[in-house]
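Problem 3 from the worked examples.
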Amino acid sequence: MANHKSAIKRIRANATKRLRNRYQAKTTRNAIKKLRNTTSQEEAKTLLPRVISMLDRLAKKNVIHKRKAANNKSKLTKLVNKLG
């Protein structure tokens, strides 16, 4: 267990950030699944910018790697374009 006051505070802050990161990552994964299961192009075109924004936010905060975000955005964009 940590002995310093600042170390104890850091443990608490890390736990809070971990929960927030997990929530945002899981929400993004669910949005990606919803987009992949969409069959209409109109609905997919409205969902795509929201999902891309979520991926960019996760990459910016280093929750996921920036190249993973880029690969996901590329694949999802191809999928939406193929629907039409």
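Problem 4, a separate protein:
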Amino acid sequence: MANKINATDHIKDTLDIVFDLFGGLGVSSFIVTFDGQGDDGQVESPCEFKPEKTAKKAEKLLGEVVKGGRVSEGMRYGPNGPEKMWKEDPKLDDMIVGLCYDMLEQVSSGWEINEGSHGTFHFDCKKRKMNLDFNERVLEDKNYEFVL
């Protein structure tokens, strides 16, 4: 059974924009992969657009600026404590990648630490749903005691 993620208003708004734009091109689905370990990680650009005949248009759309969109650029400390920084009117690709980073932070704030994790975001534009297939790498210790 899949775990439910509580999406922030920013995540919901970004998903609406993504689904509207790609749905308007006839894209039914696409994926975004990620991989992190050793205190470093990356989220790749969207790929594997379905149906294939929409791929070229979708890839071109990724480079377009989204007026009214925004993407998180991390945190800073202001006079009232930590506050999120935003980039306004980003490219669609940056919005999607930023959305995935935000989701990863909700699921596992250390997704890139030590052994890290890897996985795939599946965007279903027709159903307006996003699923995350998250694989956590686990270091296993086995202890054996021997006596002579």
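Solution to problem 4. Residues 9-136 form one domain. The two ends are 48 Å apart (CA to CA).
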